[in-house]
Amino acid sequence: xxxxxxxxxxxxxxxxxxxxxxxxxxxxxxxxxxxxxxxxxxxxxxxxxxxxxxxxxxxxxxxxxxxxxxxxxxxxxxxxxxxxxxxxxxxxxxxxxxxxxxxxxxxxxxxxxxxxxxxx
Length: 120
Known about the structure:
By secondary structure, the protein is mainly β. The chain is built from 1 helix and 7 strands. It has one helix at 2-15; strands at 28-34, 37-44, 47-50, 53-68, 76-82, 91-101, 104-118. The relative contact order is 0.26.
């Protein structure tokens, strides 16, 4: 459970749990796969810019597994859902992140929909 909390916090911070930002400089850029295509997203909190188009993230799901180093220790799975808007459509985006430390390896799969909300 501790790994789930740590991984979810890292992932939530990585995706951005802040509100929608305006024309501020991006917090960072991230590489995702959206609708099957590699996509670079300028992250501005929960809003991102792809090829000059603003998108709002919704329906974020986080699924992962922690594979401990300890011999015989079972894998721990976890999941979380955030920003469930109930809306459908838009871009279907996913990202996989892996974190390794002295206790083991955590692999996290993020999936979200991104709805176009206007030009930057």
